[in-house]
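Recap quiz, item 2
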Amino acid sequence: MARETGTKRIEASERTLEILGFLAGRERTTATEVAERLGIAKSTTHYHLKTLEDAEFVVRERDGYRVSLNLLTMGHDVVSQMSTYQAGKAKVDELARETGELCILMVEEHGYGYYIYDNRGEDAVNFDTAGNRKRLHDNALGKAFLSQVSSERVDEIVERHGLPATTPRTITDREKLDAELETARTEGVAFDYEEQLNGLCCVAAPIRDTQSDDVSVRGAISVAVPASRAQDDYFTEELPRAVSDAANIIELERQDY
Amino acid sequence: MARETGTKRIEASERTLEILGFLAGRERTTATEVAERLGIAKSTTHYHLKTLEDAEFVVRERDGYRVSLNLLTMGHDVVSQMSTYQAGKAKVDELARETGELCILMVEEHGYGYYIYDNRGEDAVNFDTAGNRKRLHDNALGKAFLSQVSSERVDEIVERHGLPATTPRTITDREKLDAELETARTEGVAFDYEEQLNGLCCVAAPIRDTQSDDVSVRGAISVAVPASRAQDDYFTEELPRAVSDAANIIELERQDY
DNA sequence: CCGGGTGTTCGACAGGATTGAACGGACCAC
DNA sequence: GTGGTCCGTTCAATCCTGTCGAACACCCGG
C-alpha cells in the first residue's frame, strides 16, 4: 500500500529517515560507517546525524551513534491510544492468570504483526515479546489475523514479505497456508506447532472489528505454551475456548473506546 | 548537551522530525491540522507526511495520520542491546518474585528517566511503566540516579526540565532536592513518598558503571509499593536492602556485555 | 446537488542540501 | 615521544530541491 506513486518526496528527509532506520538495526555505529554503508558523503551524513541528534532521535556515545529511547516512548504512546490495547490489556492479564501461560496481544500494520502487550502466568515460557515485530505467516497470531482478510490482501502481504522459514516447520508454501487459513476460519482459532520457534506452540483468535459494516480485523490474541504442554484436550479444546472467549469480549469492549 | 552550536542542520529533515514528534504526542491528526499547528504550508506538510508514510514511520488511517508501531519496535531493539537491560532483566524478575511488588529498571537519556523494563509480583500495583519517560526529580529511580552525578550535571538537567510538581509532595525546590540527594548518596538508596503519584511509594538504588575510572551511572532499579505498605522496617530496611543488593549484582554482571 | 472539509498537484523561485577535499583531534603501536 | 590511522568537523561552490499559494480533485453529509 505504502510505496511508490509518481508524486514528490522530500529527498533530504528520506535520507535522514533511512539513516535512522539503519541505525535502528544495529549496535553503536560510527558516522563514517553509516556513510560508507549507505553510499552518502561523509560530510552529508554528519549533518544528518547532527540533525537527528538535535531532535533527540539519536544519541551519540563514545563509540558511535545509536537510536534514542525516545522512539520507545513514542511507540509506547501510540500503543496506549489504540482501542485494541485499551480493550485487550485487562483480558490478556486475566487469560494469563487463568491459564498460567504466556499471553500476547498483536496488532497488524504494514503487513507485519506487532506484539503490543503480553503477560506471563505462573508457568509461562519466557522471551521478549512486547515490542517485537513478526511476520504473519509463521505464527498463530498472524494466521488468526490472516484468516480474516481478503485473499487479495494475503497476496499483497505474501508478495511484500515472502514466506521465509525460521524453523523446519514454518509454512513456506502458499497453498498450505491457504488451507490452514481456511480451517482457522471455520474453527475460529489458529494454531502454531513450533513454526516460529522450536519448542513453542500457540493458539490464537482474531479480534475483529464488529462495528463497521464489512467485518474487518485489527489484531489477535494468543496463548503460547512450551511444546511439551501442547497436546491433548488442553491444547486442542481448553485453550482454544479460553482464547476465543477472550477475543469475543475484547471485540465487544473495543467499541467503547 | 544536545542543542545549539553554530553548525549547520538540515532544515527539511528538522521539519520532518518535528512533524513526527508532533504526531507522537497526539491521537490521529489530519494533515491540515498539522500544517496549521506547526505553521507550515499545507502542501509542504503533505510532502513531509508522504515521505514519512513511505518510510513507514507514519500510518495513514481514515481520520488522520498517526505514528507507526515501527517506532515501538525500533525502541525495543535499542533496549535489547543495552547492557543495563541485559544484566538487569533477570534481576528485576527475581526481585519482583521475592518481594511480590512492582519492580522497574530505568536508564537515563537526555535528562529523562526511561523505564525500560518492569515485572509485577503477586501483590503488585498496576500501571503502565515500561516504555514510559519520566522526569528525574520526582521519583526514587530518578533521585537514585541523580545522587551519583556531579552537581553541574544536576544543574544542567534541572535547568532544562525544571522541577514541575505532579503531586502535592513533589520536590519543587532545588535545595530540598540537594539535601535528599545527599542522604541518598550516603544511604545508597533513594525514596519516594507519593511524590510522583498519589498512593505510590518507591525505593531505588543506582546502577553504577564500575569499570570506567571515574565511576558513572547509567540507571537505577526500584521497587514500587502502595502507600499502605510503605511503612515500618519493610519499607525502610527490608526493601532498601533487597534493592541495593540487586543493583550491586547488576553492576558486576553488566561488565560482561 | 451543493458546500465544507479533506488530500493532492502545479510551476516558479530562492534558498539550501550535497560534495570532496582539507583540517583537527583522539587514540594506539611502536 | 612520534607517526599513523581513524574519527568527526568545517568550508565554499554547485546544482538541485524544498517551499509556497493557488488551484484542483475528492469524499461525505445535508
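The two ends of chain B are 27 Å apart (CA to CA).
Chain B touches chain A through 54 residues (CB under 8 Å).
End of item.
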